[in-house]
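pinned: reference chain
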Amino acid sequence: MDKHIDTCTLPLVAAGRARGGRPTQQDDLICLHDPEQDARLLVLADGMGGDGAGELASAGVVAVVRRLWEQGLWREQPGALFLETLCQDAHAELRERGRGLASGEPHSTVVALLMKGARAYWAHVGDSRLYRFQGRRCLDCTEDHSVGQLRVRRGELAADQLASDPAQHKLLRGLGGSQPPQVDHGGAMLRPGQTFALCSDGVWESLSTHELGRLTRRRDQHDSLHEALAQAVERGGESGDNVALIFARVGWNEWLSRCSRRLWPARSGGLAGGRRDAAA
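pinned: its C-alpha cells
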C-alpha cells in the first residue's frame, strides 16, 4: 500500500493525491490561479479503461484544462459555459487518445470548480464529487451518475449504504464514451467562511461528509489535506482505490476584496464597464 502523497498548493487551496492500494495512479488534478482577477480553477479527474487507459484519460483531462486556461477562455465565457466547454473538449480529447490504443479505452470522471468574481461555478460527470460547506453545514453535494445513486433515488438503497454498494462503481455517465457527456452544473454566491471539497470516489467512500466538513474548516489546510488522504488510504487497505482531494476556502480578506471591486464601479463612472467585466 503506497502512502506517499503528492501535493500542490495555491492561496486558500490545498490539493493532493495518493496511489493507495492500486498498482497505478489513475487520479489526476490541477489547480490554477489568476492573481489579477483572483480567479481559481480547480479540476479533479478519475480515469478508467484498463491497460493504462485510465492514466492516459485523467492526464488528458488535465491537459485540456491547462490549454483552455492558458488560452484565457474563462475570461471570455460565462462561468457555466466555460465549464461546459471544458467537459466537452476533454471528452473529445479522450476520444482522440483512444484511437491510438491497441487495447483499453480511456474514460474519466471530472469535477470542476471555477471561483470567479463573487460567484462559484461547478460541473461534474461521473462519481467524483464536490461538497460546499458553510461552517458545519453541507450546503451542496453533487449527485453521482451511477447505478448506485439511481438505486438511492428509487428508494432501493439508503444513502449511507451507497459507499459500500457494488452498483456504485457502475457509472451511467463519463468522459470518453461513444456519446457526448451530459454535464451537471451548479453555482452559488461566494461567502466568507465557505469551504469546498472536490474528491474522487476513493476519498468520499472512506470519509464521511461530516469528516470532510470538519477537515475543510481547519486553519492549516495542508495538514488537513494530509490527514484526510492518509485516513482514506488507511481505511481503503491493501486493495484500496487511488485517492485525490482538493480543499478550497473563501477567506474574509478575499471576500472583502471582491466586494470592493464590485462596489467601486458604481462610485467611479468611467471605470464601471471594465470593472464589471473583471468581476463577472
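why pinned: The chain has nine helices and twelve strands. The first strand starts at residue 2 and ends at 10.
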